[in-house]
Design a protein that fits this description.
The protein is mostly helical and 370 residues long. It contains 11 helices and 4 strands. The strands form 2 sheets. It has a two-stranded antiparallel sheet. Mean pLDDT is 77; it is low at 1-25, 28-37, 335-353 and 357-370.
């Protein structure tokens, strides 16, 4: 695309396709694409104020909530049920995600400038990519486990073992680490327009854009398809006799809430990122107004996606009576026993147990020290 003098604006209807020399995208949502200088553009008003505040709030809530989930499950006595493994790894993934949020909050507050060096830029970007992928795959694994437990209960019994659950989680982390590797090679410090410092962004390489688009399909779209298939089959099974127990229906409700929150948070970001990658590859020319909408949409979608990292503990707190009791006990510093066995909304493998209070503990209340 031929260059114009700085003072000459691009016609609002002229198609735009990112050139290889355009500035990179950074996770702060405040990147400065070079072509935007030719369009009537600007950042979201006061984004440098409320976006860092939102990131820091998500960091505080996510750090405390996910650490509490990991703490409760890690110190749980007795045999661990299948769902405990998935929930524990999901909380660990969210915990790794929220630890990067203060860095991105600082970058937003500084107008996109990254003050922490290239090493932390690559490491935090790698953590974001890896934990996002791990979260999507772990949720897909949980939906498959629910499908096997509800629809294929007898046939799937050899597959639903603690060894298989742990192996599945280990496989998820291996895939997530591989999916995050491109960020180590293609993300780094890139100069901000006007010589105002450097931002943490990706190289405008066609190879990286194509690879990112492929990874987006494999690590978000494919798990989403698997999840939808499993829950469609589960819904059909729940409408036929014999009916499953009330507690198991409640367990499906809380897992559906977790899945829906994840999809609702990450789907807008993933869809807009796919448009962004296609535009940079030259496959989707954009007029100037759509370019501005894409930039603002990505900023808002990034905030929504990042806030998801603190959502799961809040869902447990709202829907899981046992988790509320355990959280209250930990907050008050009590190590006494729960007064009674609580049927939990998050029970995933037994009708009268909870993610945080299982049948093994209820049968062994004399020695449990929750």
């Amino acid at each position: 695309m031929p260059r114009r003098p700085c003072g000459q604006a691009m016609a609002p209807t002229e198609p735009w396709s990112p050139s290889p020399g355009s500035a990179p995208w950074d996770y702060s949502g405040l990147d400065d694409l070079e072509e935007l200088e030719l369009c009537p553009a600007g950042d979201l008003p006061y984004g440098y104020v409320y976006i860092p505040a939102l990131y820091l709030a998500a960091f505080a809530v996510g750090l405390l909530g996910n650490a509490l989930v990991v703490w409760l499950l890690a110190r749980r006595r007795g045999p661990r049920r299948l769902v405990d493994t998935f929930v524990l790894h999901l909380a660990a993934a969210d915990l790794g995600f929220v630890l990067t949020l203060p860095l991105w909050a600082a970058a937003v507050a500084l107008g996109g400038r990254w003050p922490f060096g290239e090493g932390l830029c690559k490491l935090s970007s790698f953590a974001l990519a890896g934990t996002r992928c791990a979260g999507a795959l772990l949720l897909a694994g949980m939906s498959v486990d629910r499908y096997l437990a509800v629809v294929k209960l007898l046939e799937a019994r050899p597959l639903r073992t603690p060894r298989c659950a742990l192996a599945s989680c280990c496989g998820v982390w291996a895939v997530a680490l591989l999916a995050g590797l491109p960020t180590l090679f293609y993300r780094g410090l890139q100069p901000l327009p006007g010589g105002q410092g450097s931002q943490c962004g990706e190289e405008p390489s066609h190879a990286f854009q194509g690879l990112s688009l492929l990874l987006l399909l494999l690590t978000f779209v494919l798990p989403l398809v698997v999840t939808l298939f499993c829950y469609c089959r589960i819904s059909r099974r729940l409408r036929r006799p014999p009916h499953v127990g009330r507690a198991r229906r409640n367990s499906l409700r809380i897992i559906f809430a977790i899945e829906s929150t994840f999809v609702g948070s990450w789907l807008p970001f993933s869809a807009l990122r796919a448009v962004f990658h296609l535009a940079r590859l030259g496959a989707l020319p954009l007029p100037c107004p759509l370019l501005l909408a894409l930039r603002w949409g990505l900023t808002i979608a990034t905030c929504l996606a990042f806030v998801n990292s603190c959502a799961n503990p809040l869902i447990y707190l709202l829907l899981d009576r046992s988790f509320r009791a355990r959280a209250r006990d930990e907050a008050c510093g009590r190590t006494g026993l729960l007064a009674r066995r609580i049927s939990s909304a998050s029970s995933l493998s037994r009708d009268d147990s909870s993610v945080f209070w299982g049948r093994a503990q209820a049968a062994n209340t004399a020695s449990a020290s929750w």
